[in-house]
User: Fold this.
Amino acid sequence: MEVILADYLGFCYGVKRAIHLARSSAQPGPASTLGPIIHNPQMVSRLADEGVDAVDSLAEVPGGGTVIIRSHGVGPHVYDEAGERDLHIVDATCPHVKKAQMAAHQLFKDGREVVIIGEKKHPEVKSIFEWSGRNAVVVETEEEAKELPPCDKLGIVAQTTFSGDKFRNIVNCLLEKSNDIHIVRTICTATDQRQKAAIELAGKVDLMLVIGGKNSANTTRLAQLCAEKTVTHHLETASELQDAWFHNIKKIGITAGASTPDWIIKEVYQKCQRK
Assistant:
């Protein structure tokens, strides 16, 4: 049985940076992330063991303590509240997310109706919404885009991990909404690379394994794309592998979301090689 890794998989730059900042902040004293720093339960658990726990609100961080802004980012009011409580802020917002936040903020300042293309419940999209003056509309489907009313000036940004193809299709629906449109394509390169590599590999194998948090949007999207090409399973760890998956399988492809640590990918790869 042949096991093939995708050309691009696992931690992206933004996640590596966030993990490094979190670990650095744990010394010499404790630090807390506001929400899980990334969408990978195993990595979040490991950080907790190293002294970096996740909290749900700034009220849980002791006065004068250290709070780490998660990779998905937060709105401006969080920075204000942290400053008022004299908290030390370590900003682990992904640089690509920060770009999307600032783009939305500028479009709002320019007097445009802001549309965020992305998942309404995703923390990154919520943070971009906050930077848009809380006036943006979040659009997730072509149908939602078609229902929007026309406007004089339109500005468009995207969730950094959104599907490139879905983004283009939704933008096409929005083009008729205004004669003055400013589009800022804020989907990051790592997302594009992982999606293209996964689709290419899925077309060459009998089975695709997509590794990453079940709460990870970019990992879930990889699984959806791969499932359009071949039999696909989304798993978080090697313990979820099932013997029945490998019956009559000659080639296995493996990819992983941008928040999946190397050690988990290695465990899955090695276990597959023993099948």
In short: DSSP finds ten helices and twelve strands in the chain. Residues 13-94 form a domain with the Rossmann fold fold (CATH 3.40.50.11270). The two ends are 7 Å apart (CA to CA). The chain has a mean pLDDT of 96.
